[in-house]
Amino acid sequence: MLDSTLKKIMAFLICYCVEFNIQADPLNKENIEKIIFAHALQSSNMGNFRIQLDTWPSNWNSLDNDEIIVKSFKKINNTQRFLAEIQHGKTSKKVYGVIIEQVPLPVLKITSSGGTEITKEMISIENFDQRFVDGQTVTSADYLLGQKIKMQRSLKANKPISSNDLERNEIIKKDDVVTIDWKYSNLTISIPAKALKSGAKGDIIPFEVSSKKRIKARIINENQALSGSHT
């Protein structure tokens, strides 16, 4: 949730940009939504959201560019509906609309094809309407790490990602022999070990060393795992 200082800064910047644009652009629904949003952002305790007007009086499109003032903004009861009163010159209007909650979601910066392993550098965060998020939508960037896109699939840039389009990129398979670096304080011991189950990068899985002893280690890459105090 945005803190109050950041919300005030955002509201000021939005108002400044919108007022600047209105001097050159016709009065329209999009500009009014921006102004009402800036007012709501500054005066409410809501989290991430956007607003959408139900309708916009078409006869207002021909008005001159006097200053726009939002006289009031309030939610209607406990719904996601709002009522705003705006003034344009000597004319006042009451307009209705909906408050659309938004959530930050991880997306890919570029469109990527099947078989691609997702790395940290590929991921960015964008806001999306809550109503478009379902049980399969990936909501954590950390979840994407160690995953790859399923074959015959592709993921578009800047779009929400479904877990149905992903699969674990198991870089170590059961019975693979890798090197385990066991670290304690400033001491490091490297030993060969056999994986007792498959795993992706970052997974902690059991290994068996030559003495038949089992230890757990975190997968670093396809040839290396890390155990000890830094696991």
Description:
Strands 1, 2, 3, 4 and 6 form a five-stranded antiparallel sheet that branches. Helix content is 16%, strand content 40%. It is of the alpha+beta class and 231 residues long. The chain has three domains: 98 residues; 60 residues, no CATH class; 52 residues, SH3 type barrels (Roll), CATH 2.30.30. The chain is built from three helices and 14 strands. The protein starts with a helix and ends with a strand.
Estimate percent helicity: 10-25%
Overall outline: elongated
Q: What integer value in Å does the Rg equal? A: 27 Å
Number of beta-strand segments? 14
Rounded mean pLDDT score: 83
Order of helices and strands: HHEEEEEEHEEEEEEEE
Kindly summarize this structure in a few lines.
The chain has helices at residues 4-22, 29-43, 141-144, and strands at 49-53, 68-75, 81-88, 91-108, 112-113, 123-129, 147-149, 154-155, 166-168, 177-184, 187-195, 204-209, 214-221, 224-228.
